[in-house]
Amino acid sequence: MAQITFRVNPxxxxxxxxxxxxxxxxxxxxxxLCAITHDASASMSWSRRSYMKNVxxxxxxxxEGWPHAEVPFRNLSxxxxxxxxxxxxxGWKDGTIRFVRLSxxxxxxxxxxxxxxxxxxxxxxxxxxxxxxERDPKEEPED
Length: 143
Known about the structure:
- This protein is mostly helical.
- Helix content is 47%, strand content 6%.
- It contains six helices and two strands; from the N terminus they run H-H-E-H-E-H-H-H.
- It has helices spanning 14-37, 48-59, 82-94, 104-112, 115-118, 124-128, and strands spanning 61-64, 98-101.
- Strands 1-2 form a two-stranded antiparallel sheet.
- The chain is elongated.
């Protein structure tokens, strides 16, 4: 009869570590957005359009320090590399990635061209996707 051994503290799988990193990142980002906006219900949006509408325009804040060359700005579920998630996590924890308040001049500049802060859109969908945000029930979907 073969003996079965169980590890007391099994090492998490790569997938489990990715899920844990995403969860921790989402929590940190939400906490920091709520803190800077003084709105406990503030939530992050990840498509460019939704981010500009629901974060930048609504709260007059933006993310500074996002490492666009290493990790394109996108939904964390679409970041498929643990190293990239860990890079983001370190940045949010040490403050090199953070939310900052915008002056009127900074806000206008970001409306003209958000590329310096969001990077180049990866696809047309990145530019225009509504990010799955809830729509106003009075709005009719476009055909």
